[in-house]
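Quick check before the chapter quiz. The format below is the same one you will see on the exam, so make sure you can read both the input and the output lines.
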Amino acid sequence: MKQVHVRAEINGGANGDELASFAGFCAARISRDLRGIDSWDLYVVGGLEQADVVVRVSVGGEVVEARATAIDAPNAIWNAMCRIEQPIREAVAARAAA
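Here is the expected output.
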């Protein structure tokens, strides 16, 4: 398996390095048995009361995206990663079948 790298853009008062590491852990878990994922992009906007997250994954020429909002950035990242996992699996399967 190739190394998983998440490009992260984090705005707000959150610790960017820790959040990027957490997102990388989540991405690696999803990617460990999938082939064909080209890149991961994570966008986090966090404040004192909530955090908004967008995760975009490139599979071949297709971009799969999920969004989530939660009371803090780690929960928002987790929710977005949970939402994106099945669409990624479907995109990888469709690409393999083509």
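If your answer matched, good. The helical segments are 16-31, 73-97.
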